[in-house]
Write a structure and sequence with these properties.
Strand content: 25-35%
Number of strands: 44
Keywords: Signal
Radius of gyration: 35 Å
Shape: elongated
Protein name: DUF2190 family protein
Number of helices: 4
InterPro entries: Pectin_lyas_fold, Pectin_lyase_fold/virulence
Organism: Azospirillum endophyticum
């Protein structure tokens, strides 16, 4: 090999260089192998669990009874195929479905139980496996049908109270059981209980529909004919496009359970149950949950707190968005001994309908609770009926009845106030503290306040009397205008800003006139240029002898 001067490389030098490069490559490879051994290998890709059709486990699905005795001569031969059965009287469809769940739960991977189109007759609970909350594998078993109207599971016989059609295994364990981390899915099928034609006032069946624990997902599931459609426990379960109808109670936060909240009900129909769309036991409560585009009603109650001393807040920090409280017989939200705290109702509406009324139960109000604090009613929720079919004349006390009401907001409260203005029912009846309950109406805003001694009449200028209001007295500053009449102790909406009708003295008033409390009749206004502080400006003409004038409140001119 040759080149320029000084560039000649000998054979020996080439050999030495070759051996050096080879040694370097071997060292690099060894180092890389050592690094690979020290680094954790990436997790293998997750494998979906297997799917198993209940037809493959021997289900018939023709809607008729098929006891195991039709196929097996004795219990021993039946248990070779279905180890979980206890009697030849048990149904083949139940044995197949429960057997498929157990088979997949033993794989260590979970899987999906498929329910092909058909009508399957069952006579026992379907129990889903417990999961260890610290198990990364999550041995989940799902039950998936071919459609809400295609795959039907029915329980014609009632096994009695405390039993369910489908339940999480941990529902019969201790309340602080660590195996209650369920995380399962039921989808695209329907469950029919023993009394699908039950009517209000009739005794309900004993068994429940689906008993949840944590992180359940129900998707396009129909549940009807049970004591409770869905019995809710623990946290983070979701119901999406489900139908919980024709039960005694649609969804139940039951006794003996603790709900940790954060549930989601989306586009779910809970109407047409014989007692309530939702009911809550005294020791339980609904908190931090969302109800979006749900349908309540066509029942005596939409949301009911059961009788008894409350151990938790009935409704706290929940969101109700675009929900209908429609055609309720006895009221929308009912809990005379319960608390309602920090909830938001946006775009909701409702109505009363006596066809769904329980006899001998009063229609005290649309919303009846012991304590109403820091709730917000906005959009259609404050309409409290559409003005035509709200049947407010049926209300015995008021639209909203509470022992105390503090810090609530009623946006778009026009129809709520109109109930009292039209003589149908007072907006609020509060027996105890009533403070800082703001409202926004179409042309004005203000606060619901309790009337003091002597009461007030609609159109009165009023003054503060500690936490109450009374008719304006001479030489006192006006605080607002009463929009409805109320006796002493009644609740009156007091407008403090905006345009309102106000009572006037006899003289005529021209539009644009500055108005003051009337001389000798201080709760009315007149156009005199007296020493009284201005309270507003007339926005229309009012002839002599008329009783009222429309006034733009200007209390800041005082």
């Amino acid at each position: 090999m040759s080149g320029g001067p000084g560039c000649r490389i000998g054979r020996r030098a080439l050999l030495v260089a070759g051996f050096a490069l080879a040694a370097t490559a071997r060292a690099a490879a060894a180092g890389a192998a050592q690094d690979k051994a020290l680094r954790p290998s990436p997790d293998p890709p997750a494998r979906p669990g297997p799917a198993l059709s209940i037809r493959d486990r021997g289900a018939v699905g023709d809607g008729r009874s098929h006891p195991l005795s039709e196929r097996y001569k004795n219990l021993e031969s039946a248990r070779r195929v279905h180890p979980h059965v206890r009697s030849l009287d048990q149904e083949c469809d139940w044995a197949a479905l429960q057997g498929a769940v157990l088979e997949l739960s033993r794989t260590g991977q979970g899987g999906t139980v498929l329910v092909p189109p058909g009508h399957y007759r069952l006579d026992g609970e379907i129990v889903l496996p417990n999961l260890d909350r610290y198990d990364d594998a999550f041995n989940e078993v799902e039950i998936v049908g071919a459609g809400m109207r295609a795959s039907l599971l029915s329980w014609p016989e009632d096994p009695g109270p405390g039993r369910f059609a489908i339940r999480a295994g941990s529902r019969q364990a201790g309340r602080d059981d660590n195996d209650g981390y369920q995380r399962s899915r039921i989808a695209h099928l329907s469950l029919r209980g023993p009394k699908p034609g039950n009517r209000p006032g009739e005794p309900p069946p004993g068994m429940g529909g689906i008993a949840l624990t944590s992180r359940f997902l129900l998707e396009r599931v129909g549940v009807y004919g049970f004591r409770t459609g869905v019995d809710v426990w623990r946290d983070h379960s979701s119901l999406i496009s489900c139908q919980l109808t024709k039960n005694h109670i649609g969804a139940y936060w039951s006794a003996g359970t603790d709900s940790f909240g954060d549930h989601l009900f989306l586009d779910t129909d809970l109407a047409g149950n014989t007692l309530a769309s939702i009911a809550v036991a005294p020791e339980n409560g609904i908190d931090h949950s969302s109800f979006i585009s749900c349908h309540f009603g066509f029942s005596p109650y939409a949301i009911l707190a059961e009788d008894g001393p409350q151990k938790r807040t009935f409704l706290s920090n929940n969101k109700f968005l675009d929900c209908a409280f429609e055609a309720c017989g006895n009221g929308w939200i009912q809990g005379p001994m319960a608390e309602m705290y920090g909830n938001v109702l946006i775009g909701c509406s409702g109505s009363l309908l006596p066809d769904y009324r329980l006899p001998k139960r009063p229609v005290t109000g649309l919303l009846v609770v012991r304590s109403l604090e820091r709730n917000q009613f906005t959009g259609g929720s404050a309409s409290f009926g559409d003005g035509t079919n709200d049947r407010a004349a049926d209300l015995e006390t008021a639209a909203i009845v509470a022992g105390s009401a503090v810090g609530n907001r009623f946006d778009d409260a026009e129809r709520l106030i109109r109930l009292g203005r039209d003589g149908l029912a007072p907006a609020l009846a509060i027996s105890g503290t009533c403070r800082a309950n703001r409202f926004e109406a179409l042309d004005c805003s203000g606060e619901f306040r309790k009337a003091g001694a002597g009461g007030v009449d609609a159109g009165n200028l009023v003054q503060r009397d500690y936490d109450r209001v009374r008719r304006l007295e001479p030489d006192r500053p006006a605080d607002g205008v009463a929009l409805t009449s109320a006796p002493a102790g009644g609740i009156v909406p007091v407008a403090t800003a905006g345009t309102v009708p106000v009572g006037k003295t006899r003289p005529a008033i021209r539009m644009g006139t500055v108005l003051r409390p009337g001389s000798g009749t201080s709760q009315r206004v007149d156009p005199s240029a007296g020493p009284g502080a201005p309270v507003g400006v007339a926005v229309t003409d009012a002839p002599a002898g008329s009783d009222s004038v429309l006034m733009d409140l200007r209390l800041e001119l005082r």
